[in-house]
């Protein structure tokens, strides 16, 4: 069964199209108009071993907020659609990723209960043209629209680029673990019979 999805969303502020293949090999094409954000999405797909295409056009003359948040919304919707009924997936994933002095932990549950805990201080307000505070906005939008309980914790770090990069890599790896199928699982990984 193919675990793929394509979602398009057009508003007065952005036009976003995301395609994802959960059983890919890390083939990525990303264009959002925000270089650092492109880099982070590429890392997310590469470390999640997803095939991922993201095309985003937004009102960058205002700032990057709408583009980043709406990309999180659409990526979350695509992830949820690709997972379907979630039968056979491991559901939980946790990853610790170092990036030089930075060490980030991401732990998640594909629970259908969106919740974000973001415990990270980002020392610089901006990396390139990317506003650092948008890291949390992206993660919140992804969590809500994919139905993830998502915990992000920075264990060490001083360089904002390194910190955000460690978070995105850890997110990719945790998603890879959680979305992976296990033939021992009958139905969904829940005593309720649904997630």
């Amino acid at each position: 069964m193919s675990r793929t999805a394509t979602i398009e969303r057009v508003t007065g502020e952005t036009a976003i199209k995301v395609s994802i293949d959960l059983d890919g090999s890390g083939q990525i094409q990303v264009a959002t108009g925000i270089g650092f954000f492109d880099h982070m999405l590429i890392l997310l797909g590469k470390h999640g071993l997803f095939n991922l295409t993201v095309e985003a056009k937004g009102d960058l003359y205002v700032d990057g907020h709408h583009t980043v948040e709406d990309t999180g919304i659409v990526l979350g919707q695509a992830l949820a659609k690709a997972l379907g009924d979630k039968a056979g997936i491991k559901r939980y994933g946790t990853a610790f990723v170092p990036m030089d002095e930075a060490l980030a932990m991401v732990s998640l549950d594909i629970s259908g209960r969106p919740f974000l805990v973001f415990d990270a201080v980002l020392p610089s307000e901006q990396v390139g043209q990317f506003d650092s505070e948008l890291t949390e906005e992206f993660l919140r939008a992804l969590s809500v629209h994919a139905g993830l309980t998502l915990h992000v914790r920075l264990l060490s770090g001083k360089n904002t680029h390194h910190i955000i990069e460690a978070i995105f890599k850890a997110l990719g790896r945790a998603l890879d673990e959680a979305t992976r199928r296990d033939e021992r699982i009958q139905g969904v990984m829940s005593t309720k019979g649904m997630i």
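The chain has one domain: 4-179. The mean pLDDT is 96.
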